[in-house]
Design a protein that fits this description.
Layout: H1 2-13, E1 26-33, H2 35-38, H3 42-50, E2 56-63, H4 69-74, H5 81-87, E3 92-95, H6 101-104, H7 106-122, E4 126-130, H8 142-155, E5 159-161, H9 163-173, H10 189-204, E6 214-218, E7 224-229, H11 232-245
Parallel strand pairs: 1-2, 1-3, 3-4, 4-5
Antiparallel strand pairs: 6-7
Helix pairs in contact: 3-10, 7-8, 9-10, 9-11, 10-11
Protein backbone atom coordinates (compact mmCIF):
# COMPACT_ATOMS: atom_id res chain seq x y z
CA UNK A 1 0.00 0.00 0.00
CA UNK A 2 2.99 2.33 0.42
CA UNK A 3 3.42 2.44 -3.33
CA UNK A 4 -0.22 3.36 -3.82
CA UNK A 5 0.16 6.18 -1.28
CA UNK A 6 3.19 7.35 -3.24
CA UNK A 7 1.04 7.50 -6.38
CA UNK A 8 -1.54 9.64 -4.56
CA UNK A 9 1.18 12.00 -3.33
CA UNK A 10 2.66 12.15 -6.83
CA UNK A 11 -0.72 13.09 -8.24
CA UNK A 12 -1.13 15.80 -5.62
CA UNK A 13 2.29 17.29 -6.33
CA UNK A 14 1.51 17.13 -10.04
CA UNK A 15 -1.50 19.34 -9.43
CA UNK A 16 -4.13 16.62 -9.93
CA UNK A 17 -7.03 16.71 -7.52
CA UNK A 18 -8.03 13.49 -5.84
CA UNK A 19 -11.55 14.31 -6.92
CA UNK A 20 -10.62 14.58 -10.60
CA UNK A 21 -7.92 11.95 -11.04
CA UNK A 22 -10.54 9.66 -12.46
CA UNK A 23 -14.08 8.58 -11.82
CA UNK A 24 -14.06 7.35 -8.18
CA UNK A 25 -11.01 5.11 -8.08
CA UNK A 26 -10.55 5.18 -11.83
CA UNK A 27 -7.28 6.11 -13.52
CA UNK A 28 -6.65 6.82 -17.19
CA UNK A 29 -3.42 5.22 -18.43
CA UNK A 30 -1.64 5.74 -21.76
CA UNK A 31 0.91 3.12 -22.86
CA UNK A 32 3.63 4.54 -25.14
CA UNK A 33 5.82 1.95 -26.83
CA UNK A 34 5.99 -0.70 -29.53
CA UNK A 35 5.36 -4.41 -29.99
CA UNK A 36 6.44 -5.26 -26.44
CA UNK A 37 3.43 -3.18 -25.40
CA UNK A 38 0.84 -4.28 -27.96
CA UNK A 39 1.74 -7.99 -28.13
CA UNK A 40 -1.14 -10.03 -26.67
CA UNK A 41 -3.03 -6.81 -25.86
CA UNK A 42 -1.08 -5.90 -22.71
CA UNK A 43 -2.93 -2.59 -22.02
CA UNK A 44 -6.32 -4.30 -22.39
CA UNK A 45 -5.25 -7.12 -20.06
CA UNK A 46 -4.06 -4.60 -17.46
CA UNK A 47 -7.48 -2.98 -17.57
CA UNK A 48 -9.21 -6.34 -17.13
CA UNK A 49 -7.02 -7.30 -14.16
CA UNK A 50 -7.54 -3.92 -12.50
CA UNK A 51 -11.28 -4.57 -12.27
CA UNK A 52 -10.45 -7.13 -9.58
CA UNK A 53 -8.86 -4.36 -7.48
CA UNK A 54 -10.20 -1.17 -5.95
CA UNK A 55 -8.89 0.95 -8.85
CA UNK A 56 -10.13 0.53 -12.40
CA UNK A 57 -7.54 1.38 -15.04
CA UNK A 58 -8.85 2.71 -18.34
CA UNK A 59 -6.06 2.07 -20.82
CA UNK A 60 -5.12 3.35 -24.25
CA UNK A 61 -1.97 2.96 -26.31
CA UNK A 62 0.23 4.82 -28.78
CA UNK A 63 2.33 2.14 -30.46
CA UNK A 64 3.96 0.99 -33.67
CA UNK A 65 6.31 -1.96 -34.15
CA UNK A 66 9.92 -1.26 -33.18
CA UNK A 67 9.19 2.37 -32.26
CA UNK A 68 11.80 4.31 -30.28
CA UNK A 69 10.99 7.08 -27.83
CA UNK A 70 12.69 9.50 -30.22
CA UNK A 71 10.16 8.58 -32.93
CA UNK A 72 7.29 9.08 -30.50
CA UNK A 73 8.70 12.49 -29.52
CA UNK A 74 9.14 13.70 -33.10
CA UNK A 75 5.83 12.27 -34.31
CA UNK A 76 7.42 9.98 -36.86
CA UNK A 77 5.84 6.88 -38.47
CA UNK A 78 2.35 8.32 -37.96
CA UNK A 79 2.67 8.50 -34.18
CA UNK A 80 0.71 11.22 -32.38
CA UNK A 81 1.88 10.48 -28.87
CA UNK A 82 2.46 14.07 -27.71
CA UNK A 83 -0.94 15.13 -29.03
CA UNK A 84 -2.56 12.25 -27.11
CA UNK A 85 -0.76 13.21 -23.89
CA UNK A 86 -1.70 16.85 -24.33
CA UNK A 87 -5.40 16.21 -24.91
CA UNK A 88 -6.10 12.82 -23.30
CA UNK A 89 -6.46 13.87 -19.64
CA UNK A 90 -4.35 10.91 -18.55
CA UNK A 91 -3.37 10.25 -14.95
CA UNK A 92 -0.45 8.00 -15.90
CA UNK A 93 1.71 7.68 -19.02
CA UNK A 94 3.87 4.56 -19.40
CA UNK A 95 7.07 4.84 -21.47
CA UNK A 96 8.69 1.85 -23.16
CA UNK A 97 11.83 2.15 -25.28
CA UNK A 98 12.68 -0.14 -28.19
CA UNK A 99 13.78 -3.50 -26.74
CA UNK A 100 17.51 -3.03 -27.45
CA UNK A 101 17.52 0.69 -26.69
CA UNK A 102 19.01 0.38 -23.22
CA UNK A 103 21.86 -1.70 -24.66
CA UNK A 104 22.59 0.01 -27.98
CA UNK A 105 21.36 3.60 -27.52
CA UNK A 106 21.14 4.31 -23.79
CA UNK A 107 21.97 8.00 -24.27
CA UNK A 108 19.00 8.40 -26.60
CA UNK A 109 16.74 6.54 -24.18
CA UNK A 110 17.81 8.83 -21.32
CA UNK A 111 17.49 12.00 -23.40
CA UNK A 112 14.00 11.35 -24.75
CA UNK A 113 12.73 9.79 -21.52
CA UNK A 114 13.69 13.03 -19.75
CA UNK A 115 11.86 15.13 -22.34
CA UNK A 116 8.80 12.91 -22.08
CA UNK A 117 8.79 12.86 -18.27
CA UNK A 118 8.85 16.66 -18.17
CA UNK A 119 6.13 16.85 -20.83
CA UNK A 120 3.97 14.28 -19.04
CA UNK A 121 4.19 16.18 -15.75
CA UNK A 122 3.42 19.48 -17.49
CA UNK A 123 0.21 17.86 -18.72
CA UNK A 124 -0.88 16.70 -15.28
CA UNK A 125 0.12 13.03 -15.39
CA UNK A 126 2.63 10.79 -13.64
CA UNK A 127 5.37 9.13 -15.76
CA UNK A 128 5.98 5.39 -15.42
CA UNK A 129 8.78 3.39 -17.04
CA UNK A 130 8.21 -0.08 -18.44
CA UNK A 131 11.47 -1.91 -17.70
CA UNK A 132 11.62 -4.70 -20.25
CA UNK A 133 13.59 -7.98 -20.28
CA UNK A 134 16.71 -9.31 -21.98
CA UNK A 135 16.13 -11.38 -25.09
CA UNK A 136 16.27 -15.13 -24.64
CA UNK A 137 19.68 -15.61 -26.28
CA UNK A 138 21.38 -12.77 -24.38
CA UNK A 139 20.24 -13.02 -20.72
CA UNK A 140 23.46 -11.24 -19.67
CA UNK A 141 21.92 -7.97 -20.92
CA UNK A 142 19.45 -7.95 -18.03
CA UNK A 143 21.73 -6.07 -15.61
CA UNK A 144 22.35 -3.27 -18.10
CA UNK A 145 18.67 -2.92 -18.98
CA UNK A 146 17.67 -2.76 -15.33
CA UNK A 147 20.47 -0.30 -14.48
CA UNK A 148 19.56 2.10 -17.29
CA UNK A 149 15.82 2.08 -16.56
CA UNK A 150 16.42 2.46 -12.82
CA UNK A 151 18.69 5.46 -13.40
CA UNK A 152 16.16 7.08 -15.73
CA UNK A 153 13.37 6.58 -13.18
CA UNK A 154 15.41 8.05 -10.34
CA UNK A 155 16.70 11.01 -12.36
CA UNK A 156 13.21 11.97 -13.57
CA UNK A 157 11.12 11.18 -10.48
CA UNK A 158 9.24 8.50 -12.45
CA UNK A 159 7.82 5.21 -11.27
CA UNK A 160 9.52 2.01 -12.40
CA UNK A 161 7.51 -1.07 -13.37
CA UNK A 162 10.11 -3.87 -13.07
CA UNK A 163 8.72 -6.31 -15.60
CA UNK A 164 12.19 -7.50 -16.61
CA UNK A 165 13.01 -8.20 -12.97
CA UNK A 166 9.81 -10.23 -12.67
CA UNK A 167 10.77 -12.27 -15.74
CA UNK A 168 14.17 -12.99 -14.25
CA UNK A 169 12.72 -14.02 -10.90
CA UNK A 170 10.20 -16.26 -12.68
CA UNK A 171 12.96 -17.90 -14.71
CA UNK A 172 15.07 -18.46 -11.62
CA UNK A 173 12.14 -20.11 -9.86
CA UNK A 174 11.00 -22.12 -12.88
CA UNK A 175 13.80 -22.47 -15.46
CA UNK A 176 11.46 -24.13 -17.97
CA UNK A 177 8.73 -21.47 -17.82
CA UNK A 178 7.69 -20.26 -21.28
CA UNK A 179 7.63 -16.47 -21.08
CA UNK A 180 8.98 -15.92 -24.59
CA UNK A 181 7.25 -16.11 -27.94
CA UNK A 182 9.06 -18.60 -30.26
CA UNK A 183 11.06 -15.66 -31.69
CA UNK A 184 12.94 -15.36 -28.40
CA UNK A 185 12.16 -11.66 -28.07
CA UNK A 186 8.44 -10.98 -27.72
CA UNK A 187 6.32 -12.26 -24.84
CA UNK A 188 4.19 -15.37 -24.91
CA UNK A 189 0.68 -15.13 -23.49
CA UNK A 190 2.10 -16.06 -20.09
CA UNK A 191 4.88 -13.45 -20.44
CA UNK A 192 2.29 -10.77 -21.17
CA UNK A 193 0.16 -11.94 -18.25
CA UNK A 194 3.13 -11.66 -15.89
CA UNK A 195 3.80 -8.14 -17.20
CA UNK A 196 0.12 -7.23 -16.70
CA UNK A 197 0.28 -8.49 -13.11
CA UNK A 198 3.27 -6.21 -12.47
CA UNK A 199 1.56 -3.18 -13.99
CA UNK A 200 -1.66 -3.76 -12.08
CA UNK A 201 0.16 -4.34 -8.79
CA UNK A 202 2.52 -1.37 -9.20
CA UNK A 203 -0.20 1.10 -10.13
CA UNK A 204 -3.02 -0.02 -7.83
CA UNK A 205 -0.97 -1.44 -4.96
CA UNK A 206 -3.09 -4.59 -5.10
CA UNK A 207 -2.76 -8.13 -6.42
CA UNK A 208 -5.97 -9.51 -7.96
CA UNK A 209 -6.96 -12.39 -5.68
CA UNK A 210 -9.48 -13.99 -8.02
CA UNK A 211 -7.90 -16.84 -9.96
CA UNK A 212 -9.21 -16.50 -13.51
CA UNK A 213 -7.81 -18.52 -16.37
CA UNK A 214 -9.92 -17.17 -19.25
CA UNK A 215 -9.46 -13.48 -20.15
CA UNK A 216 -11.91 -11.89 -22.56
CA UNK A 217 -13.05 -8.51 -23.84
CA UNK A 218 -15.77 -7.20 -26.14
CA UNK A 219 -15.28 -6.09 -29.73
CA UNK A 220 -17.02 -3.06 -31.26
CA UNK A 221 -20.05 -5.23 -32.03
CA UNK A 222 -20.32 -6.33 -28.40
CA UNK A 223 -19.11 -9.84 -29.18
CA UNK A 224 -16.79 -11.57 -26.72
CA UNK A 225 -13.15 -12.04 -27.78
CA UNK A 226 -10.85 -14.41 -25.90
CA UNK A 227 -7.49 -12.75 -25.28
CA UNK A 228 -5.86 -15.75 -23.66
CA UNK A 229 -6.52 -18.92 -21.69
CA UNK A 230 -3.98 -19.80 -19.02
CA UNK A 231 -3.26 -22.65 -16.65
CA UNK A 232 -4.52 -22.06 -13.11
CA UNK A 233 -1.14 -22.81 -11.52
CA UNK A 234 0.58 -20.38 -13.92
CA UNK A 235 -1.84 -17.65 -12.88
CA UNK A 236 -1.11 -18.26 -9.19
CA UNK A 237 2.62 -18.30 -9.91
CA UNK A 238 2.51 -14.92 -11.68
CA UNK A 239 0.44 -13.40 -8.89
CA UNK A 240 3.06 -14.54 -6.37
CA UNK A 241 5.92 -13.11 -8.43
CA UNK A 242 4.13 -9.75 -8.58
CA UNK A 243 3.45 -9.89 -4.85
CA UNK A 244 7.16 -10.42 -4.18
CA UNK A 245 8.08 -7.28 -6.14
CA UNK A 246 5.64 -4.67 -4.83
Amino acid sequence: MLKFRFLILSLLFSGISLFTMGNEDTLRVLFVGNSYTYYNNLPQLVSILSKQTGTTLITQKSVVGGAKLSEHWHGQRGLKTKEMIRSGHYDIVVLQEQSMGAIEQSDSLKFYAKLFCEFIKENGAVPYLYQTWAREKVPQYFETIEKVYTEVAEENDARLVPVGRAWRLANQSRPNIQLFDPDGSHPSNLGTFLAACLFTATITGEIPETIRTNYTCLDIEGESITLMILDKLDVVFCQEIARDLI
